[in-house]
Amino acid sequence: EGIETSTSVTLAPLWVEEGPVGIEAKIPAQGWVRTPMCVSYYLKNRSDYLITLKMTMEASDAFMFAGQKQVDIYLRPQKERKVEWILRPLVAGFVALPTLNLSVPQEEEHKISRGKLAEVLERSLPTHVYIMPKSLTSEELLG
Predict the structure, then answer these.
(1) What is the reported pTM?
(2) Cα 52 to the center of its chain, rounded Å
(3) Neighbours of 111 (CB within 10 A)
(4) What range does the record give for the signal peptide (predicted)?
(5) Domain-by-domain residue ranges, the chain?
(6) pLDDT at 66 > cutoff 90
């Protein structure tokens, strides 16, 4: 009947290095033009020491936002911190989110490099969100 074949290959070990800082974004699946939407960022310190970061939300033609443009963040060892912004979409479509930047003070660079931080942001954060046109109310339809 059927012949079964098996092959065994030994692979070199693979080391996975987890950075000292992790970030996750919680955003709605979609938004509506001129309707506020909350975007939450969760920063996790996976190290055993205090990490200081500067978090900046870049200006965007597609969104207005409420909240501080720049925030200093102190991540305690093995703890998570939540930072929220309220975004108000100005255009409909598959819209680029405002860019979030994290930077490390020069005296803290021995804890985490700028390159690693940029890599974490690039891998972890969504870049776009669907924004629906504003729906008309019944008064606007009748009026």
Answers:
(1) 0.79
(2) 18
(3) 16
(4) none
(5) 21-133
(6) no
